[in-house]
Amino acid sequence: MRKLKLWLFKKGWINIHPDAIVHPTAFVHRTSIIYGGVKIGENVQIGPHCIIGGVCEYPNKRLRVCNNGPVFIEHHTILHGLNTVDGPNEFSTVIENDCTLMKGSHVGHDCFIQNNVTLSCGVKVGGFSRVEAYSTLGLNSTVHQKQTVPRGSMLGAGSFFKTDKGRHFKIWVGSPAKPIKPNQYLIDKLNASINSNTDIPKG
Description:
Strand content: 25-35%
CATH topology: UDP N-Acetylglucosamine Acyltransferase, domain 1
Structural class: mainly beta
CATH superfamily: Hexapeptide repeat proteins
Oligomer: single chain
Number of strands: 23
CATH class: Mainly Beta
Shape: globular
Order of helices and strands: HEEEEEEEEEEEEEEEEEEEEEEEH
Largest sheet: 9 strands, mixed
């Protein structure tokens, strides 16, 4: 049966590789492609025309329709459509719980996207990068490869993030992006959740 499904996948007649693991509560649109090595958690929603676990984008790296390495999309995460999440080049690509990827956003190979992150439309996250919990990346913003976006950051629309001096809970704007003020809205929101005894997932 696996050989048949693999043949059908290579021919483009089914959209989920037989080695991919998709939780029964997850939804994958029929136009999206899920490669081998991908694990999709509970209540994940993957909209139309997404490519999950494809070969990482390196010069002269040939396309493969097999297992490109481990990609984990954990629970309650939503990909609205036209999203790409690359398979790893060395380690794994991870998107944790309760994340939102709006249309046209891209997560490069070996990235680690922590809990409660929002990637707005057109966001690009370069390979080996880390986006820490509760961060929001604005429309068409870009994270250069091998960067860490600090916890609770807000990256302004069209900004280019490349720095080794990141600070938590800041609003970043510009190219290159620089912190301009505290992300007070998020700070107040998290403090209100703590005061009301609402559990905040750890990033």
